[in-house]
Design brief:
By secondary structure, the protein is an all-alpha fold. Helices cover 74% and strands 0% of the residues.
Amino acid sequence: MRAFGLFVATAGYVGYFPIAPGTAGSAAGLVLLAAIRFFAGPELELGFLVGVVALGFWAAEVGERHANREDPGFVVVDEVAGMLLTMLWLPLTWVTALVGFLAFRFFDIVKPFPARNAERLHGGIGIMADDLIAAVYAAVTVRLFVWILASLVAT
């Protein structure tokens, strides 16, 4: 079970990418979203998100125990879940994907309230919670961007 937990925690070993594993994990989240949209459709998107989050709580804990330290960098399932939440039911274009990716990375790094507080929670909950909060900020940002862009194009 530990091997499977590490596989999930690292998003299929993407977390072992030597440079910016969190960014690589976010990119993996976009790839997963594209696959979900292509093979399953947007109607199943929420189910995949819930599954990744639920599995992520456990897998992040497995990764933390494996590394014997809090929130090890190779655990990127939180970034995958964050990207899925950021882009939930949004049109998936190059523009929205780029804006969503950049917004999520920004809020994940800056950790606005209450994300920084959530990061202090122990175990998989703390690893996942701060990214999910950052994803809410990013989702609002992308939706505002899409709304403003649509308003400009319509006029």
